[in-house]
Amino acid sequence: MYITVYLLLLAPAALAVAAPAVARHLAPAAAVRVLSCLAVIATAATLWALCVLVVGGLGREYADEGSAALRVADPVPRSVGVLAAVLLTVAVARAVVVRRQRVAGARLLSAVRLAPAAGELVVLADDRPDAFALPGRPGRIVVTSGMLGALSAGERAVLLAHERAHLRHGHHHYAALADYAAAVNPVLGPLRDLLNYGLERWADEEAAAAVNSRALAAISLARAALATSCRAGRPAGLAYVRHRIGARVEALRAQARPSRGRRLWVVAVLAGGTVAALVDTVGALARCVNAMVL
Amino acid sequence: MAGSAPEQRRESGALEAEVMAALWSEAGWLTVGQMHQALGDESLAYKTVLTVLGRLHAKGLVERERSGRGHAYRPRRGPAEAVAAEMNQALTRGADRRAVLQRFVDGLDPDDEQALRALLDAREQ
Fold this sequence. Notes:
Chain A is mostly helical. Chain A is built from twelve helices and three strands; from the N terminus they run αααααβββααααααα.
């Protein structure tokens, strides 16, 4: 049974390694949904395995010295229990920090959300080209006057459709999920990046469909990216490449690819195995707790 | 361009956003006719554009002046400046952009930059 717990701890790494195949073989919307499921499974596996080790390793202190049942059911060394407790505390603390940042950010931006808007659009009088979706209620598309001036009519339509897709499909929920997963288990950082990229690709595809032209969508993206990089007054250190503009433009210039789900059997087996291990350890923990209580 | 899309009836909110975006991208006053043209969508009725502009005016987002038999419109800077100030204030007070916003484009490495320039140049020739 305890082998299962340690397997459970390895599962997130295995899922993170397998995740790029999901992004490769599925269309963006499907890829995001599958990656989100993997993130949930991997996060649950992490938290649950740590919980089981804490109970198994430290639980003996709460049981009778002479409880033979516990000694039999509980081969987790105390040191492992302590380590698991530390890791669990760190994971929860990191998740709480993510939560705080989100709540504080949403509160600070509420004035922007409540400003008068043309439909969903809020224009900022600012020469630096920038555009983003501000999720929540009501959701807003925020674009600077600099960005609107840099794009043609068709390119603006792409931009609006892209941000609208973020809002309509609740993309911030997926992004939040990915943030929490990476906070709980840093091994899931690459999975979060894949998911964020998938969200941008999803919105790109929707925008291309809205204007009925993948070429126009690609041009719009290229123009916006160049305008932003030339004129942004941002310190160079902050210019991280999160959304891989070049790859997004290339993807739009290529043919839309249908999903090839059959290639993903390895991922399915891994995910299924992890879920089975989770279920198995629930039973194991129940036995362990029984041994302590009785 | 975008107008070639066989669009079904757009939501009025989406149309408002498009009209507003077009007004901001043009530096000066636009008549309803010019606006209609700027949107580049023949399936759109002139009257619809007029209605949308009226709604934006009622919201205080655009100003208008008489021009011939109708009006010319342009965006009011006031609200846009106010909200830009709010935004900057939120960011300086530590709102973590990445936690709450989804950006259209974000960062660009030099190789990407060259490839994108080549793409735009090729299109313009």
